[in-house]
Amino acid sequence: MPDSTSRVIGFPISRIDGPLKVTGRAPYAAEHFPADMLHAFVHVATIASGRIERIDLADAANYPGVVKIYTHENRPRAAWWDSAWKDDVALPGHPFRPLQNDRILFDGQPVALVVAESFEAARDAAALIRVSYVEEEPATNILVEERNSYEPKEKRSGIAPPPPPRGDAQGAFEASPFKISAEYVLEGEHHNPMELFASTVIWEEDGSLTIHDKTQGSQNSQGYVCGVFELPKEKVRVFNRYVGGAFGSGLRPKHQLFLSVMAALDLQRSVKLELSRREMFYLTWRPATVQRVSMAADQNGHLSAILHHAVEATSRYEDYQEVVVNWSGLAYKCENVKLTYELASMNVSTPGDMRAPGAATGVFALECAIDELSYKVGIDPLEMRIRNFVHMDQNEDKQFTSKALHGCYRQGSEAFGWDDRNHAPRSMRDGQDLVGYGVSTGIWEAQVTNAAARVRLNADMSLLVSAAASDIGTGTYTILAQIGAEGFGITTDQVIVDIGDSALPTTSVEGGSWTAASSGAAVQSASIAVRATLLKHAQTMENSPLAKASVEQTAIREGRLVLDVNDQVGVSVEDIFAHVGLSFIEEEGKAAPDQATQKTFSSYTHSANFVEVHVDEELGVIRVTRVVVAVAAGRILNPKTARSQILGGVVMGLGMALYEEGMFDHRTGRIMNHNLAEYHVPSHADVQDIEVIFVEEHDDKTSPLGVKGLGEIGIVGMAAAVANAIYHATGNRVRHLPMTIDKVF
Ligand code: MOS
């Protein structure tokens, strides 16, 4: 029974790790400085397709301070060169193995690793390496390669192929009075968290490794190192205590981890490898995608048919897959649906998860399409969405655990002032500017994954919460402290949270918006276990007033274990500890997906996004002047960190809508704008008013805490809301992201 008197869960507590971060005292992966450490630097390929003919290392090897240079010709032994070993989160295909052979499959592929006594020596020597290549014609243009697409054969773990068709989508489409059919293009987006990919590998005399890695899961990196190099778990400990953003880029181990461990083991020295900003562009990205949506409705605006086909880029060596089209089968009521998904293999590095992977992409097309159709039918775009509200997940024929989307539409539109909108495009102005209002729906899975946590209650009522969970900037430290504090009637400053260490209780990577629900539930469960132990001890005291109590009947308030029905009856925790002669009580708790619930229910978070744009008619400059996002995500543990998650998602959504674009020179297959000067992410001047509303939603099925997760929903639908607002402002439909000036008029 949670303690209803504490002011912990549900309160806007500032991040407990905030002061460390803003004062520079939170060390990131590259900010560890073991004694006698070597520095590594990667020399990357300058072609996108072909093979290495010859590598000339003479100048580089003679450079002062260089210790060793590794290429595919002299790389040391590692288990995975000759085995079929794959990491836990590997995709169908062959995981990228840097320096494996002479094949070049993408621009920026690592070709050599220079290890030197200083960073400068490693970097300068890497520039002296001369490689001659035999080039082949690269394929990097999704708009061309879409024609050579193929259906993914192997199922990626956790991602099922699209649901089978229902009804007769093509027939219903043809028979309907109102219809649209359009192609939507997303250029690739590149991950640019503040913190670069880095590993500091500390080599110990006994051959064990302590690694500070930029990752979303310390145990995932640990498993990777152990698997690739055939090391026992006890010999490898990975820390990721502070992570400077990741958004999915850190889910899979990156090649800097492999290369730095390889060198450390070979040279028996500590090694650090931090990739450059430029190299970040070669690593992982939201894949370029071409989508076609055909959608039809009757004269009342009820959807009669949806056909959604997507082709996404993948690499030459792995089938990266994400859920792009499924959303179109469950977001609105429709009996005739056909969803298809294919891949196009190109000379790019394997794409990866990027905030709301698949949904950000697929819902963009879906939400533009339904908007286009609403104008065809002649009804308000918000009304169109409300008319097609669905109470069931028709893909899986299941009930939703909860769906407060009506509240999102209502509260969002009120706060935004949607009713002030003139329906006709190009009908609203503000001086020089055309003004447009756009709306979209957002949807994302609410998941629970495997997580464990340990809770230690000390006799002085201070608490230690520990788990191998990660905080990628999302606020994990803070909410775990809140959940721990709530369980013992204390405040968060009495709680120490120890996470980001592979030696702590087993926890999945931080991703999928599942951490609050999963690690949170594990902390709650461990806290209850501690209380149960405390109660058991209290019951051994003479004339214990709690003799007959069950743990569910008890709570801890003001340092006393009390009978919840009457908190006068109880025993002081200090007395219990004294009675049994202990200084602390420690228990573990676990969380896991609830199979029974999943059989009958679907669980999603929802949002309604409202966007106002100003478009300068002469220059085409687009400004997003106002955004209102109303989110239904179950229980909100901390409105402050929760709001920050939505703000981050919205800002990334604005980047997706208007700015972010990985530009290839398709003749060479090379990425041209691999820096933050030419790849624009939203800056302060691009971000104006954003209002976040959390709509009340009670969900007792998704997770033990009633939490649905917030990390990704903020971005879903944002690009569509901007596109729809631009159409409303200008009368022009832009179906190609990012919507840069040249595409608007
Ligand atoms: Mo998220 S894209 O699962 O970090």
Automatic annotation (TrEMBL):
<dbReference type="Pfam" id="PF20256">
    <property type="entry name" value="MoCoBD_2"/>
</dbReference>
<dbReference type="InterPro" id="IPR036856">
    <property type="entry name" value="Ald_Oxase/Xan_DH_a/b_sf"/>
</dbReference>
<feature type="region of interest" description="Disordered">
    <location>
        <begin position="147"/>
        <end position="170"/>
    </location>
</feature>
<feature type="compositionally biased region" description="Basic and acidic residues">
    <location>
        <begin position="147"/>
        <end position="157"/>
    </location>
</feature>
<dbReference type="InterPro" id="IPR000674">
    <property type="entry name" value="Ald_Oxase/Xan_DH_a/b"/>
</dbReference>
<feature type="domain" description="Aldehyde oxidase/xanthine dehydrogenase a/b hammerhead">
    <location>
        <begin position="23"/>
        <end position="137"/>
    </location>
</feature>
<protein>
    <submittedName>
        <fullName>Xanthine dehydrogenase family protein molybdopterin-binding subunit</fullName>
    </submittedName>
</protein>
<dbReference type="Pfam" id="PF02738">
    <property type="entry name" value="MoCoBD_1"/>
</dbReference>
<dbReference type="InterPro" id="IPR016208">
    <property type="entry name" value="Ald_Oxase/xanthine_DH-like"/>
</dbReference>
<dbReference type="InterPro" id="IPR037165">
    <property type="entry name" value="AldOxase/xan_DH_Mopterin-bd_sf"/>
</dbReference>
<dbReference type="InterPro" id="IPR046867">
    <property type="entry name" value="AldOxase/xan_DH_MoCoBD2"/>
</dbReference>
<dbReference type="Pfam" id="PF01315">
    <property type="entry name" value="Ald_Xan_dh_C"/>
</dbReference>
<dbReference type="InterPro" id="IPR008274">
    <property type="entry name" value="AldOxase/xan_DH_MoCoBD1"/>
</dbReference>
